[in-house]
């Protein structure tokens, strides 16, 4: 049985988090590193640690201390292009908490890590008090991704139907701040 510590990433966690993310884009997405899509992975500190209102979480395996899952949140809404213009308008930067890089190593999946990471990211967004919505996009070709996100929120745009792209956009309700204070 594995015990996992979910925490805000510290300096010693960044290399492990980067490895989980790069392995995911190579193995699960099959795209490899694409600078215009994945630049944040290289500079995790600049993207998620240093900026106010951003956070990078990691799940660390209690047996050996390795990072096995990641989840990040930033205050940037979806950019147009490449995303549809109506999404960029609906989810403006500063008012939108965008979930990013929710990745779990294959051998650690089906243990509730993604759900725990997302819950912690949503708590972070609610505690901030300035986010009016939570947005994310996913590649529905990744096994389990679409069903997982449908269990968390609602699909607001399916680009497979509109443009033929392999992207589905989701909105998740921001938890009420009083729910956070009750923890």
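Q: What amino acid sequence fits the structure above?
A:
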């Amino acid at each position: 049985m594995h015990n996992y510590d979910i925490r805000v990433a510290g300096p010693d966690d960044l290399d492990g988090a980067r490895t989980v993310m790069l392995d995911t884009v190579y193995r699960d997405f099959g795209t490899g590193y694409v600078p215009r899509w994945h630049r944040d992975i290289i500079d995790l500190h600049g993207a998620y640690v240093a900026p106010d209102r951003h956070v990078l979480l990691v799940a660390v395996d209690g047996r050996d201390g390795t990072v096995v899952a990641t989840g990040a949140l930033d205050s940037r809404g979806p950019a147009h292009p490449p995303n549809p213009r109506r999404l960029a308008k609906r989810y403006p930067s500063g008012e939108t908490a965008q979930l990013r890089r929710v990745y779990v190593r294959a051998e650690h999946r089906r243990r509730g890590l993604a759900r725990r990471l997302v819950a912690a990211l949503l708590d972070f967004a609610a505690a901030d008090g300035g986010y009016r919505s939570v947005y994310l996009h996913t590649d529905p070709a990744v096994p389990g991704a679409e069903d997982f996100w449908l269990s968390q929120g609602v699909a607001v745009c399916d680009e497979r139907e509109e443009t033929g792209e392999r992207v589905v956009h989701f909105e998740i309700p921001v938890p009420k701040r009083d729910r956070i204070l009750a923890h």
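Q: And what stands out in the fold?
A: The longest strand covers residues 96-104.
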